[in-house]
Model the fold of this input.
Amino acid sequence: MTRDRRIALWGLSVPLGLLVLWQVLALTQSTPLFPGPVKVGVAIWSNAPVILSELGITLLRAAAGFALACVTMIPLGIFLGRVRILGVILSPLMDMLATLPPPAIIPLVMLFAGTGDWAKIVIITYAAAVPLVMNSYEASLSIHPMLSRVARSLNLSRIETMRLIDWPSSLPMIVTGARLAIASSLLVSVTSEMLLSTNGIGTYLQRSQETFRVDAGLAGIAFISLAGLIVNAGMARLERRWLFWHYRDKTGD
Amino acid sequence: MTSILTADAVGKAYGTGSNRLPIIKGLTLSVEPGEFVSLVGPSGCGKTTLLMCLAGLLAPSEGEVRFKGQRVTDPPIGLSVVFQDYSRSLLPWKTNLDNILFGMRRVTGMDKAAKRDRAMEILSAVGLTGFDGHYPWQVSGGMQQRVAIARGIAAQSELLLLDEPLAAVDAQTRADMQDLLLDLAARFNQTCLLVTHDVEEAVYMADRVLVLGPRPTHVVREIEVDLPKPRDQLATREHPAFLHARHEVLALIRSMRQRTVAA
Amino acid sequence: MNAALQFAERFRVPLCLLLVFGIWQAVHLAGVVPEKFFPSMPEIVGAFWRMLSDGTVITAWVTTFLRALIGLIAAASLGIALAILSDLSPVLSRGIRYVSDILQPIPPAAFVPMAVFMLGLGTKLYAFVIILVTVWPPYLNGVTALQAVSPVQVNTGRMFGLSRSQILWQVRLPAALPEIFTGIRYAATISLIAVIVSEMLAGRDGIGFMIYKKVYAMRSSDVFALMFLVACSGVLLNGLVALLRRALTGWHMRMMERPE
Ligand SMILES: Nc1ncnc2c1ncn2[C@@H]1O[C@H](COP(=O)(O)OP(=O)(O)OP(=O)(O)O)[C@@H](O)[C@H]1O
Ligand SMILES: [Mg+2]
Done:
């Protein structure tokens, strides 16, 4: 216990050392375009309200796109897994779309849908859709045949089978997809704001660049990082809560 | 004649504080050169742990282990182990032949070609001719086990520690492998310490059987097996000395079990 | 039913192309989307051919692809180095993990505007952005996989007299390599994202910049053609990773293919 604490404390020396290095580098450069961590710290303090409200908009859009993708794409993935022939035919398309970087489609959507909220949400939904559909497809393919036999021996209806057997047993893999989808939503949400500037943290970063406020921009980045940390931690908690059986199972093989 | 391996008042515990779990306590044993010694004991009593301590892979908490008079702190040259988890001890990115050559890294006085020839010879001795280019995961469990045994023998160690090497094979293969092991040990002049929970196997193979007690374990009895060599699956198993030794070990284990249940 | 499935399995690529092509043309002909934004397939192919023959797209593609590839190689090497470094001491491991926790959630696009001031518009910018976002998957997978190497394998190495560093190089790293490659594969996708985004935001060349330019010129068939090219680059980059993976960890791939 105490040893872990000591390691955690001493480990802090690595990020702190990097900060000191950065500060020294900034001091030798001595230009406002290369601020050190101290200046950024001050900027964090003074710009926090603006940054937080802009970041809120970004996260809201990311959440909307992600939710939209979840409700449409997870059922679609499971459906494709169940109706094998469709899934097989569409799998090359899924593989192809998986390698297409989501930010690359931002300009494309801009052509169709302009630069409003909906345009961005559509892009985010697309970005989140790819990992979700692929993982739920894979998940519904890899359900253990034993479990299907159990379902049949219990005389479960089609709907009951989906709800009681398919859904929980594909959950771990779908959650993996969801984790990728969340990262992707966040990435695309920020990027879309930078390319289609209206509001949000991406636009804030662009504005900081235009006004040469590098310190304020870096403060914005710090908050993005913080938001990501919180989302990841929350996700890990939920997984431990809902999927403990999966991780416990693993050791038994 | 000096002992090749001695353990003197060895103790080993896992964990610290309230989690401390003593596994071995005050265990003393010795193995003479050329001997075949069997170790039997109830499941979970600490046989694998003991073997790891003897091999220098785990540091004992008390007492000391000596190999050829030298105190063991790291795995010494001249000693090799066939692990209980044999399938995982084979490196899956090496072929069977390369796995055996890997075991011969410390063998001196042989060039590459000579080592290769030797490895092939041992492979055919364990009945794996033609499987040298296969990967361990391409052959059956019983064959993997033989690769692991072949690797232990190829290391040309004076002392071979075997951790339940025959636990996972069917009865007929098992009998064949027992004879193979005895044959190989005699041919390559190796001292062996065999862990097993099969009492008949322990008696059949050994010159001496050491019986371990429940946790925290130590040697509770030493039984000399006075049977003619080479052993024979039929004759040896019907020999009065075999039946006598087997009886003694089984009775001892039964009395230990009754005592644990009563406690 | 089963025969149909087998047929679909065998011809899934042409079938898929046919389906996509058909739906695309149907949407185009139905005219639900203005033609200006939704060109027909032949128009897209024509646009692709035109850009190919005047050579602009080739230089742009080479630039972009090389950036992504070199960035990926650098980031993967650095990631593995960090994983090995983490293996040396628990304190170092924890420290590097802090840094990765902080930096990993930040999208590549966010770095670009500020990095432009600190590093200029050239190679340094690309190197910085790509490595900073691409290094984490190989590193994280490397750390987990090195930790997860079976103790029996490590003990086998010790027994045959391998030193600590020999065990790392000859036992633990080969055992961890398949998992590390999973990370590198993921990193390949990220590397391409980082390049395209940087080119869109701060570039003067490359496919990302070209897409951006074409969008403002409202050349939708050019944009679609370039998107297709980007997807192909992704496939190519993944293919290169798969090739290296087969060379280095072929044993693992064949082991996994083995029927139970
Ligand atoms: N690394 C460890 N940490 C804590 N406890 C352990 C560890 N390894 C083994 N043990 C405990 O030590 C005891 C003895 O384990 P060991 O594997 O030595 O038994 P064994 O006699 O070889 O059993 P088996 O006959 O099943 O192979 C067991 O109760 C086990 O739970
Ligand atoms: Mg054991």
Chain A has one domain: 44-252. The pocket of magnesium ion (ligand 2) is lined by residues B 47-48, 84, 163 (CB under 6 Å).
